[in-house]
Prior knowledge:
Elements: H1 3-8, H2 12-16, H3 21-43, E1 45-58, E2 66-69, E3 74-79, E4 86-87, E5 92-97, H4 103-140, H5 146-181, E6 184-186, E7 191-196, E8 204-205, E9 210-216, E10 221-227, E11 240-245, E12 264-271, E13 281-287, E14 304-315, H6 316-325
Antiparallel strand pairs: 1-10, 1-14, 2-9, 3-5, 3-8, 4-7, 5-6, 7-9, 10-13, 11-12, 11-14, 12-13
Helix pairs in contact: 3-6, 4-5
Amino acid sequence: MPFRDQHIGHFQTLASIRPPRLIVAVALMLTLAVAMLVLLLTFTPWVQTTSGPGVVSTRDPNDRVQEINALVSGRIDRWYVRDGDRVAAGDPIVRIADNDPQLIERLSREREQLTAGRDAARAALRTAQIDLERTRGLFEDGLAARRDFEAAAIRVEDMRASLAAAEASIERQETELSRQSVQTVRAPREGTILRINGGASATYVSAGDPVAMFQPEGAERVVELYVDGRDVALVAPGRRVMLEFEGWPAVQFSGWPSVAVGTFPGRVLSIDPTAQPDGRFRVLVAEGDETPWPGPEFVRFGASARGWVLLDEVRLGYELWRQLNNFPPQYSTGTTS
Length: 337
């Protein structure tokens, strides 16, 4: 007699019960699903990534948003631009008038006076030099005293010092006149006026005060990613990056970048050696060679982004176990892609 019948033979009702076909089918399906899950976790490849938020910026400081400053002190006389206007190199932005409308005229008259004084000093020096040569000849012939010869030499040196002082005064005056004459602030290069900081006409500004914010044209875009300090040791220049830009529809699969939709490739340029105040490290990402980024009208400077730095390829089971245990990505000494 079978072992089962020996033990439940006295329980006729239990012996007559058979498992429902549905239960058997569910059990088989669960067993098959577990087996497939084990195979999936064991053999499915997964690309490890480290992600972080970012912002669109530029690498060259000359391409960043910059201030346009007043060159001289005075009151605003006229604005040539408004917010959002595009300008070319050399286009006027604002004209600043000095509080004293006769300042430039007075400076010009003072320069003329200084020029006349310099010419007089030159004439006096030539006369002193002639007198010195005549006194030298008389002294050598024994017709003039040594004291007269030395006094003539001293007068020549005094005249040279006076001439040097007059020329220095003229240079200072020309510098002041040049500064006061340059009262029209112009665009340094082609770009866009983002915001006018100065007030209306008759507003007083000092030399160096910002009068407008300017965004140069043709700036090269990069993305500043901020990566967790736990993973930054695995990020190296040349690593591939998948970027998702703000407002751009995308479906991202971090482990399978080949099936991601709406993301754009990039490459790591550099990693900051020191952390930000929040403990993250800044990673600069440049545009990749495969697919160009959206145009500047879609992805502007200052727009938010998110990036996934592609690391090594592992199995899905290992990646799931790593995530559950909060381990860093697997380190590899191989070359970066």
